Amino acid sequence: MYLCVRNTGDQIYNTKYEVDSLYLLIYLLAKIYLQSSNQYLRLEGSLWPIVYPFMYTYLFFSFVFFCSDIEISRGQAPKPIHILAKEIGLLTEEIEIYGQTKAKVRLSLLERLKDQPDGKYVLVAGITPTPLGEGKSTVTIGLVQALTAHLKINSFACLRQPSQGPTFGVKGGAAGGGYSQVIPMEEFNLHLTGDIHAITAANNLLAAAIDARTLHENTQSDKALYNRLVPLVHGERKFSAIQLARMKRLGITKMDPKTLTADEINKFVRLDIDTSTITWQRVVDTNDRFLRKITIGQANTEKGFSRQTQFDIAVASEIMAILALTSSLSDMKERLGKIVIANNTKGQPVTAEDLGVTGALAVLMKDAIKPTLMQTLEGTPVFVHAGPFANIAHGNSSVLADKLALKLVGKEGFVVTEAGFGADIGMEKFFNIKCRASGLIPNVVVLVATVRALKMHGGGPNNKCIFVVGFLSFPIQNLKLVSDGCSNLLKQIQITQQFGVPVVLALNVFRTDSPAEINLVCEIAKQSGAFDAVPCRHWSEGGRGTMELAEAVRKAANQQNNFRYLYDLELPIVEKIRIIAQKIYGAQDIELSPAAQSQINCYTQQGFGNLPICMAKTHLSLSHMPEKKGVPTGFVLPISDVRASIGAGFIYPLVGTMTTMPGLPTRPCFYDIDLDPDTEQVKGLF
Amino acid sequence: MYLCVRNTGDQIYNTKYEVDSLYLLIYLLAKIYLQSSNQYLRLEGSLWPIVYPFMYTYLFFSFVFFCSDIEISRGQAPKPIHILAKEIGLLTEEIEIYGQTKAKVRLSLLERLKDQPDGKYVLVAGITPTPLGEGKSTVTIGLVQALTAHLKINSFACLRQPSQGPTFGVKGGAAGGGYSQVIPMEEFNLHLTGDIHAITAANNLLAAAIDARTLHENTQSDKALYNRLVPLVHGERKFSAIQLARMKRLGITKMDPKTLTADEINKFVRLDIDTSTITWQRVVDTNDRFLRKITIGQANTEKGFSRQTQFDIAVASEIMAILALTSSLSDMKERLGKIVIANNTKGQPVTAEDLGVTGALAVLMKDAIKPTLMQTLEGTPVFVHAGPFANIAHGNSSVLADKLALKLVGKEGFVVTEAGFGADIGMEKFFNIKCRASGLIPNVVVLVATVRALKMHGGGPNNKCIFVVGFLSFPIQNLKLVSDGCSNLLKQIQITQQFGVPVVLALNVFRTDSPAEINLVCEIAKQSGAFDAVPCRHWSEGGRGTMELAEAVRKAANQQNNFRYLYDLELPIVEKIRIIAQKIYGAQDIELSPAAQSQINCYTQQGFGNLPICMAKTHLSLSHMPEKKGVPTGFVLPISDVRASIGAGFIYPLVGTMTTMPGLPTRPCFYDIDLDPDTEQVKGLF
Questions:
Q1: Phi/psi at B446 (5° precision)
Q2: CA distances from B265 to A236, B234, B241, B269, B351 (A)
Q3: A314-356: per-residue pLDDT in tens?
Q4: Residues of A numbered 29-48 whose beta carbons fall under 8 angstroms of chain B's beta carbons: which are they?
Q5: What is the distance between the terminal CA atoms of chain B, rounded to a whole angstrom?
Q6: I need a labelling partner for B176 at 20 to 30 A (CA). Which of A401, A663, B397, B473 fits?
Q7: DSSP letter string over B439-476?
Q8: Where are the transmembrane segments (chains A, B) (predicted)?
Q9: In CATH, which of 2.60.220.30, 3.90.850.10, 3.10.410.10, 3.30.420.40 is domain B573-654?
């Protein structure tokens, strides 16, 4: 149990506050004028010449004095990771250093600390997000900075590793921002310790094995297949361990390869994969839209066995979900073996184990299973482990990281983790899938909202450009828009309450929010049943700006906890989907496509009916229609297809059309990303 | 300059020799009987019952007492990598630790040691390989073990990082074997420090950028493209640095985006990629034969702009060649920008720089540029950097690793590096491409041969099964076969001599080779002009088994060196190809396909005519016909196509049909690969 982390946060404020005082003067002048009009302002027509000078002064100072995220990240030298590891009570033999700022933590730690009581478990979730994100990662980091570096309470942040696809595409990185970041942010946002690459390698080895096996079965006799699968080595044929396991599943109890009958050989050598049922896709960690639908196997060497398939973004791989949900190396290996890749021609599931690839997948993933230790800007510990994309995956960081962190912080400490997108998406999966897998019970939910997002939910414009949104469209107090938009906040609070966990609203404050707006949101939240509601200024102030939140979370964690899952696993798949659709999304009902219905029947008949549900749904609305903000009602949720991740352990229905591969825009982020070859510094990551 | 490396090699021999004495007794009994017949023996018919008992005794002891490569690797605890780093004179700030056994070495070291004289530079090459490999990696490691751990001369091995494709496919790993290995071999053979993953990520980001850009150009007006490429940010449009560079190339000198004419905007926004000329392929580090020819872009979102393309194995990426040939971070960035991905519709080259992705590629590769330090079984230092596949790539380790190592060993020290496949393939490229890029001059070539391979070149059977080959087919002395097969050895010695570097034959001895065979090969080699020829027993004895070779190499390194390139860069492309075909492969002439001729004309006209040549040719024969062993003559080399790697800096002609993506066999290596979840040990890697 660690007791202190040296607060290295103070030094970063010095230069910042000097700049701020000048900036604030200009800002206030602009604010006084603008607030006097007290109306929703679009800078058109006659107002333009008046606002112009203010805007430019603001912009000038913003750009001259304000630092970008990567500049802030670079401005703070991270402490050597072995020092941090020592501070939080890790033994030298429990870490594997990766450079100066990252270390993998061995799972043996769980065994050493098994008698240590767990700390408090806090989930950060959000309202339905706007295209800009509401700042869940920054709140998570701000909160642990406040707890550890300022209130001197042990805490740990558990974050997800970002995908390189969006980092080089549209979204940028996911290290937090401003004065609430994981540093060095370029390490966090790039290869990290290679976990996603390992997932890609494992995923694609399995994919290659499927098609190669199909080809070999299609072009060889039973005898030829058998002679190759059980080859003559030193005059003898022997089954490998994985082959004996398959024989057992087939009900063949013989140990000597010579004694198999022709029929048994046929059963043994032929997986008879029905290629039309293959659900295992290849993956890349790149936004490559041209791989959304492809035809493979068109070279002559593949003898005409071409088929249509697709690539997904790597983080959507079932192996990522397995990594997030597994509890140990042996559990991971077992899950990898259980992955169902297709049905055979008799409609029975074919697994990775049947392909003989379980051990190889486990070998490829043996290092990825260890969480990566990094630090916040204020020197507090962070685990980075497993992946994002809560819309098409479960989008939570790993069970193992949370478990290790809960032991490390000790009974009075706090572990803060984040669920992707809105509470309806990431949090629902956190409770029903991740908590079920881990057996852990969360103590508090922190729900993140911003005034500008609530305005959008209240009917404000949808503008993707951050700065223009931040200043030009929303600088003016508009209590009506805010109040209307709080419907979404209210709904997300209600969703959280269904799980019986106290909820604290963290209002991520921007400079453009007025005090009246901030008060209004906090009041509404409290009236809606939130345990507390506090404004947070972590982006501009780091941990100091989140101390009020930290106090509120500490109090909420001592509340009585009536945690419960939303549905019973034993219910039929359709029922479980309906419960989520109605109780979480507010749908009237669900509508299954014939394909979805037939898949559900198939999985139920195969014995997979009692798994939890991982919905693949847009994150931009409570409904399946991204443009419907606020709280849509009266809709029927269309389930277009249903897949199964048997290794990960869930059924995932696809709501409407969900792409599992993002694309690159006309001007991707990479236009601004550069490397200074002399200083080796990265530019343009955000 | 480092002076001592603690020899940790001794302890590994203890158990080994105890086992060996028992084994040798049995082996000698068998040998005495078998050699008495002195004929080429196939175990058929009447001999079978006589040989049977010997064979089984041999097999029994081999299996009971002999260790597999991974068991040997695991039997020796590697010293902590920071200790090794210190021993060889690296400063703490010059290394980045990756776990206990790997470290990346910073390029700043080159600057610190710039006044240090270089050591001797030794290349290990081979005869035309048989499917089993002749042991170049083991000789390389055995040689540095002998030099450093036994003769106390500073030395460094520079090896290539293996591809995971063959590791899980047919070939297994590439860490060496027996008592001449890089340890831990599972670290070496798996993700290492992520370099190949970084190459894959960079390669595929560029590929995704190409297709996305084509789609956006095909579906947007000039104005829409311009507005997106040079977006309005805070009321202003500004060109990014990479865009200004493109403007300059287009001859547009304006700085203000507002002032461009419609014609200039058209020129600026349209790369007008002729998709039929795209030579940039996607890559995966998996043997996935179904990706050899594919159709991409078939989803509705890609609006019908589908096209046929392929995936290559990741190590064949031009970015791997750039990594191997680059001299610094700024040189790498420049090379990445110069990559030509296609022609535009006017026949002009389109580059990565035109796509605005140079900086992002450099950022993805910023860690991969640092060589990885590991160690041999006897604790001597090894750099692992850049990749294999000398048939479809240049197949040499990196210039940077060699340069760093040459400084580290000091004037009297030795750096031993390996070129892939036969001397006609890897060594030719080493001299003409890699040495030209580095400016380094090799002192000695070590040519590796085995008796069993020479027998195959002499007309013996081609048998892929290692043990059956090793014992059943070649146990009997057959001087005629050996002598005939030496034609290939002679030819490879002659090839080496054309470059003016002294050559030492290293005969990798197997237990089944007779003294007469060994002597014969060494005699023929010396008569053919080799400086020396010595048998090596590094596989079974480690560095002790290669001390004679080490002495020979030391003497040869003091010989006069008349190093010269094979061809003048200023010659026309066709002439350079012809020189390689005739002087190296022994071809009568070359024959260009119309496609190849037209590509050569195009590259010459584009100004790329003065680059060196990187032939893509089978490694299994001096000719283009894999089945032709020995020294084929009188053949005409067919050049089916010609490509250009402008960033790497070479033209690569394709000889006949060369696949750039291996496949998985019916029973891939992965059937035997497993992970023990309790001990975390890897099984079945070799």
A1: -100, 120
A2: 72, 21, 17, 6, 19
A3: 999 999 999 999 999 999 999 999 999 999 999 999 999 999 9
A4: none
A5: 34
A6: B473
A7: -----EEEEEE-HHHHHHHTT------HHIIIIIIS-S
A8: 46-66
A9: 3.10.410.10
The span from the CA of A157 to the CA of A122, in Å, is 9
Question: Got the DSSP string for A578-604?
Answer: HHIIIIII--SEEEE-HHHHHHHHHHH
Inter-chain touch A204–B288, beta carbons under 8 Å? yes
pLDDT at A60: 47
DSSP string across B246-298: HHHHTT-----GGG--HHHHHHHH---B-GGG----EEESS--GGGSSEEE--
Mean pLDDT computed over every residue of chain B: 89
Q: How confident is the model at residue B240 (pLDDT cuts 50, 70, 90)?
A: confident
Q: How far apart are CA A353 and CA B654, in angstroms?
A: 39
Contact status, residue A406 vs residue A440, Cβ threshold 8 Å:
yes
H or E segment to which residue B638 belongs: strand B636-645
Share of chain B above pLDDT 90, in %: 76
Which conformational region is residue B403 in: left (phi greater than 0), alpha (psi within -120 to 50 degrees), or beta? alpha
What letter represents residue A285's amino acid?
D
* C-beta of residue B535 within 8 angstroms of C-beta of residue B522: yes
State pLDDT tens for residues B419-462.
989 999 999 999 999 999 999 999 999 999 999 999 999 988 75
Distance from C-alpha of B282 to C-alpha of A204, rounded to nearest angstrom: 14
Q: Do A330 and B678 touch (CB under 8 A)?
A: yes
Query: CB of A392 within 8 A of CB of A225?
Result: no
Q: Looking at chain B from residue 277 to 316, which residues have their Cβ under 8 Å from any Cβ of chain A?
A: 282, 284-299, 301-302, 308, 310
* Chain B hits for A669, Cβ within 8 Å: 360
- Helices H, strands E: what count in chain A? 26, 25
Query: In the CATH scheme, what is the homologous superfamily, with its name and number, of domain B196-365?
Result: Domain 2, N(10)-formyltetrahydrofolate synthetase (3.30.1510.10)
| Residue-level pLDDT at A38 | 42
The verdict on a CB contact (< 8 Å) between B677 and A328 is yes
Tens-place pLDDT, residues A393-409: 889 999 999 999 999 99
Q: Residues with Cβ < 8 Å from A430, sequence gap 6 or more?
A: A123, A125, A394, A396, A419, A442
Q: Tell me A150's DSSP state.
A: I
Decide if B651 contacts B614 (C-beta within 8 A): yes
Give the minimum alpha-carbon distance from B635 to chain A in angstroms, rounded to a whole number.
26
Nearest to A282 by CA among A383, A208, A362: A208
Neighbours of A346 (CB within 10 A): 7
Question: With an 8 Å Cβ cutoff, is A201 touching chain B?
Answer: yes
- CA A232/CA A664 separation, integer angstroms: 51
Residue B445 in contact with residue B503, Cβ under 8 Å? Answer: yes
- Candidates A175, A168, A108, A115; CA nearest to A142 is A175
Q: What is the ipTM of this complex?
A: 0.91
**Domain ranges for chain B:** 81-193+367-558, 196-365, 573-654
Interfacial B residues in 494-523 facing A (CB < 8 Å): none
Tell me how far apart the alpha carbons of residues A268 and A15 are, in angstroms, rounded to a whole number.
71
Residue A234 has its nearest CB partner, among B59, B356, B669, at: B59
Between A109-118, A384-393, B286-295, B479-488, the lowest mean confidence (pLDDT) is in A384-393
Could you tell me the pTM of the whole model? 0.92
CA distance A223 to B213: 50
Residues of chain A with pLDDT under 50: 1, 3-4, 6-20, 37-46, 48-49, 51-52, 56, 59-65, 463-474
What is d(CA A529, CA A514) in angstroms, rounded to the nearest whole number? 23
